[in-house]
Design goal:
50% helix, 13 strands, alpha/beta
Length: 622
């Protein structure tokens, strides 16, 4: 089909791409079509996508006129599908069988180049199908195949790779066996001779020291660049990939306006944005909050069919087949990402090795001044995302992802089968799964503003879920430890051991080891032995104690210096007290793992009273 056009007011012929030229005779402004064509050329996309994504024409109007041009039937929201409709196949192809008596065997929702092919008489079914919109087709599939979608979202990983899935094998017997082994070790240790017991204790201390090595080493100069470094060479809009943005929403009505404001500030071509807000079927309040807003054309609301477990990763899995972008990022409802983050990530992926599957953005607690708890939370996050995370990325070691501001190459994410719906820290699990599959996680020095819980109960529930999820991840990837070590390699295996099960183990043991050590190793109580061997237990204990405090305090201090948070530096010495609370959360996580392994402790957002950047727009005090 040749390029058509129209004559402008100055007598010039303006060429139009065929995917929009058919609209000329249907009361669509030629100047509007010319604008879409120019936008498509500048952004490197097709004109139909540019026309719809930029809001120059309503999606339904475009497809109605397309159907009229083709002499085909247009079907809107009333879309009765036939028995052959499949998820996700029908959505990926954009075509689905219709129920008998609809006047056509299939319904088709073409995009981009497929519109041109249809206008040229080439149909994917061989016969002229009925025409619908991509949104109507997606809603019809979700409405008529909810059970299949729920099963896909919950169990695709366990079906494809049971060795990577938490619920592939019952955890209760493993937990019971581990408890029995731990009890047996304690009983055996209690009956050992004093000398042998001392040797065992020294080995335990050496083990803890090995686990601390990665956190202490991250303090060095290899721990990455300063936050929000200036970007490298800017990619032209035409070279940028289509970018999918996922935000899972559940009981988030309070932050919906702020979220939409943040998502519409991206420095990215609107023609290449594919933003999907994922809601649950029983969340009427969030649905009502979204309905009150005028959503841009490139923002879709996807209602996830009911099912178990009701977790964020299940919602993400339901939407993964819908992603149109070659890059994909996950944000949380309360997030305010830097407007340049998508472009920075796209440019970083373009420079990175094809084995770089993910980029982790820098998460920043913005309401630190709400309470001492949020101050410590901010210190913990700057240690993790400004110091430890960049170091792990530089060393190409396994990285427990942050769950938000995680940018993926979509084809790799699909290759590892998305997220584990049954793991309540799907981010940590996915980071380790990517490492086992041979992929790297890179650092993205671009900030995302986050809100931390200011009150102890909310903080404890959230942290309990994190610790429970770390245990789930440990059980999953420790099911066949020799296979995991072979896939990761020795150093990466030690790193994974230190950062996931080691985090929980150190939190569980922290009050029972650290407090007695402080008392017994107080300078006035230390007595020097007469030989090296008699001094070795005390020396090892002092080394572990000092290393533990260095690993706890120094990354937070360095993170504060890098961000210029001089007002938080006086709170760094409070972290040993803060980690006593983390220990309580770890013990609750163990209990929940047994009693309620699938429970997702929801954190309420939109409650911040302060905001360092002003991005959180704090609620006035009651």
């Amino acid at each position: 089909m040749s390029i058509l056009g129209f004559r402008s007011l100055r007598g010039e012929t303006v060429a139009l791409p065929p995917e929009i030229a058919f609209l000329l005779g249907h009361a669509v402004s030629p100047m509007l079509l010319a604008k879409a064509a120019a936008l498509a050329r500048a952004s490197g996309t097709d004109a139909a996508t540019a026309l719809i994504q930029s809001g120059l024409i309503e999606e339904e109007r475009f497809y109605r006129v397309l159907a009229l041009t083709l002499g085909a039937r247009f079907l809107g929201d009333a879309l009765p599908l036939g028995a052959g409709a499949r998820f996700p196949d029908s959505l990926i192809a954009g075509v689905a069988p219709l129920a008998p008596g609809m006047g056509a065997a299939f319904v088709y929702a073409p995009r981009g180049r497929a519109v041109v092919e249809l206008l040229e008489g080439r149909s994917p079914t061989g016969l002229m199908p009925a025409i619908t919109t991509p949104t109507a087709l997606r809603r019809a599939i979700f409405a008529q195949r909810p059970a299949a979608i729920a099963a896909h979202a919950s169990d695709e990983l366990v079906r494809r790779r049971p060795d990577w899935a938490y619920n592939a094998a019952p955890a209760a017997p493993i937990i019971a066996l581990a408890s029995l082994l731990f009890g047996a070790v304690v009983l055996v240790a209690a009956s050992l001779p004093a000398l042998l017991m001392t040797a065992v204790w020294i080995l335990v201390q050496v083990g803890f020291l090995a686990l601390l090595t990665f956190r202490v080493a991250a303090i060095g100069p290899t721990s990455g660049v300063e936050p929000d470094r200036p970007p490298g060479q800017r990619l032209p809009d035409a070279d940028l990939p289509v970018y999918t943005v996922f935000v899972a929403l559940y009981r988030e009505a309070a932050v919906v306006p702020r979220l939409l404001g943040a998502l519409t500030q991206f420095d990215y071509p609107v023609t290449k944005l594919d933003i999907k807000l994922l809601t649950e079927a029983d969340d009427g309040a969030t649905a009502a909050a979204l309905a009150r807003l005028a959503l841009p054309a490139h923002v879709d609301v996807v209602v996830v069919p009911p099912g178990l477990p009701k977790t964020k990763p299940r919602a993400l899995n339901a939407a993964l087949p819908l992603a149109r972008g070659s890059c994909l990022v996950v944000y949380d409802a309360e997030d305010v990402p830097d407007p340049g983050q998508l472009r920075a990530a796209a440019e970083a992926f373009a420079r990175a090795s094809p084995r770089t599957a993910c980029l982790q953005g820098r998460l920043v607690i913005d309401n630190a001044r709400d309470s001492w708890l949020t101050r410590c939370f901010a210190l913990e996050y700057t240690a993790l995302f400004d110091v430890l995370g960049p170091a792990l990325a530089a060393w190409r070691l396994p990285t427990p992802l942050g769950g938000t501001s995680t940018h993926f190459r979509t084809h790799i994410l699909r290759a590892v089968h998305g997220w584990d719906a049954w793991n309540v820290t799907e981010d940590a699990d996915l980071g380790l799964r990517l490492a086992r599959a041979g992929y790297d996680v890179g650092d993205l020095p671009s900030s995302t503003i986050e809100e931390a819980p200011a009150h102890y109960k909310a903080w404890l529930n959230q942290r309990t879920r994190w610790m429970k999820g770390f245990l789930q991840t440990s059980l999953t990837h420790g099911r066949n430890p020799l296979v995991a070590v072979r896939e990761l390699g020795p150093l990466a295996s030690l790193c994974a051991l230190a950062l996931i099960p080691g985090t929980v183990a150190s939190a569980l043991a922290y009050p029972f080891l650290m407090l007695p050590a402080l008392v017994s190793l107080w300078p006035s109580r230390i007595e020097a032995g007469t030989s090296f061997w008699s001094n070795l237990p005390t020396g090892a204990a002092i080394t572990v104690l000092v290393s533990g405090f260095v690993a706890m305090l120094m990354p937070a201090y360095i993170g504060c210096r890098r961000r210029g948070w001089h007002d938080l530096i006086p709170f760094v010495p409070l972290l040993p007290v803060y980690f006593l609370l983390v220990s309580l959360a770890a013990w609750r996580g163990v209990i929940e793992l047994v009693l309620a392994p699938d429970r997702w402790n929801k954190t309420e957002h939109g409650l911040s009273r302060t905001s360092r950047s002003g991005a959180l727009k704090p609620r006035p005090p009651p």
